[in-house]
Amino acid sequence: QKSRRGVVNRLPGFESIELFLYRAGMPMSVRVFVIATLALGLGGFVVGYSILRDPLQGLGIAGLAFLPAIFVEVRRRRRMAAFERQLPDAMELLCRSLRSGHGMRAGFQMVGDEMADPVGTEFALVADEISFGMDMRDALRNMGHRVNHSDMPFFINAVVIQRETGGNLAGILEQMARVVRERLRFFGKVKGLL
Q1: In terms of CB atoms within 10 Å, which of 5, 97, 182, 184 comes out highest?
Q2: 91-99 long-range CB contacts below 8 Å, 24 or more apart?
Q3: Higher pLDDT, 182 or 7
């Protein structure tokens, strides 16, 4: 298994494929994804060429190799859209936790326990990383890298700066949640008009 994994690690874009699958919430390893892609492409070409006797048409059928990537991309978009919808609720829950006197790690754990995937999963991972001794700044940056959502840098910077300088983090999170929710409502209206 070690040598097989080593081969996959050397493939170009390994990290991006792993991240691509993670963001889609796919329980599939990179190796399985690569094998499925190659098998569909090669199988499509062999079947197409053997039936049609034309290499160009065989290459056209080899386009089946794109099916796994298309499927994962659809899943990725749905999961990231769900994260975007859940983020304001997560911020408000974190805000309530802070106002109740809980620390940041406990607040992230509360969001992880009470909210569904993907927000619940991501916030629980931050809580776990902090519990294992990782600096909060690094744990938050890891979440930003895993999710890659446009609102995450603002959220991460707000948490990091307020922890270092002090101030009303709960109030800032409440305002951010309101802004994100209003933006989502606005874009929802725009989509409804198109």
Answers
A1: 97
A2: 91/155, 91/173, 91/174, 91/176, 91/177, 91/180, 92/173, 92/174, 92/177, 94/123, 94/173, 95/170, 95/171, 95/173, 95/174, 95/177, 98/169, 98/170, 98/173, 99/170
A3: 182
Q: Of 39, 37, 48, which is closest to residue 71 (Cα–Cα)?
A: 37
Q: What is the CA radius of gyration of the chain?
A: 22
Q: 43 near 64, Cβ under 8 Å?
A: yes
Give the tens place of pLDDT for each residue, 164-177: 888 889 999 999 99
* 124-163 per-position pLDDT tens digit: 999 999 999 999 999 999 999 999 889 999 999 999 998 8
Q: Residue 112's closest CA among 103, 121, 102?
A: 121
21 burial type by CB count under 10 A (0-12 exposed, 13-18 middle, 19+ buried): buried
| Per-residue tokens: 161 | 């700066």
Give the per-residue SS3 of 15-82: HHHHHHHHHCCCCCCHHHHHHHHHHHHHHHHHHHHHHHCCHHHHHHHHHHHHHHHHHHHHHHHHHHHH
Can you tell me the mean pLDDT for 86-90?
A: 96
The dihedral formed by the CA atoms of 122, 127, 130 and 134, expressed in degrees to the nearest 10: -10
Q: What is the DSSP letter of 117?
A: T
**pLDDT score, position 26:** 92
